[in-house]
Amino acid sequence: MAKPIMAKATAVWLVDNTTLSFKQIADFCGLHELEVQGIADGDVAAGVRGFDPVANNQLTAEEIKAAEENPMARLSLKYNAAAQGEEKRRGPRYTPLSKRQDRPNSILWLVKFHPELADSQIAKLVGTTKPTIQSIRERTHWNIANMQPIDPVALGLCKQSELDTAVQKAAQKRAANGEAMTDDERRKLLSTEQSLGMDAEPKMPSSISGLETFSFGRDHEEEKEEALPDADSFFNLPDHGDEDEDDDK
């Protein structure tokens, strides 16, 4: 169900100017019934000026009157042709002022760990512009030396589901174009749910990399002992039988 614009201010006006039940107001404004009760008690939305839904073409006075007489009736938002499609408006995502300074770091993270993403996808995820993304890709950004790659999900700039969707679209596009991908790139193109569901891969310490076939087993030690020459072979010792003959003489 569509909610009215300025829902909380509309609820304030309905609480102050009608005898509608808390549930009726909550259902119409998309709020919890206890939140509407808090508005009536003055604990919620203190100082918020009421927004008249009748004057702003969201409700009719007749519908409010009918709902006041029937507590089971539900208010319905008045159709407004000008508001249709507003939720599908395209453009950069709005980023709060407190988080805008973190956008370059998140762009650097996306460029580094998901180079398959198009500039338009990155712009939509974190709410930035293509020139900014291009300057970070080319490392010509004025603050590139002080930037650190940070996950935009951790910064609250986008949801993990949105990032996964963008990555999957990029993977499908690359597959459709027949572009080859490395194993590392394939792993990056997995969604969070897919990667968490996979078995952990055994990792070998980098200090012994390349020694995968080396064995410390018993067979290897036995082969090593057999390969060693006998100590007697280093000396031309006389036969014990000859020594006995000399002693007899």
Taken as a percent bin, the fraction of beta residues is: under 5%
Mean pLDDT: 76
Derived from helix and strand composition plus strand pairing, the structural class reads mainly alpha
Largest sheet: none
Question: What is the number of domains?
Answer: 2
The gyration radius over C-alpha positions equals 37 Å
Pfam family, one: TrcR
Region (Disordered): 81-100, 193-249
Organism: Celeribacter baekdonensis B30
Protein name: Putative cytoplasmic protein
In words, what does this structure look like?
- The protein is mostly helical and 249 residues long.
- It has two domains: 7-83, no CATH class; 91-195, no CATH class.
- 47% of the residues lie in helices and 0% in strands.
- It has 13 helices and no strands.
- The chain has helices at residues 7-17, 22-29, 33-41, 61-69, 103-113, 119-126, 130-137, 152-155, 160-176, 183-188, 192-197, 218-227, 240-248.
- α5 crosses α7.
- The longest helix is centred in the C-terminal third of the chain and has 17 residues, at 160-176.
- It is elongated.
- 18% of the residues are buried.
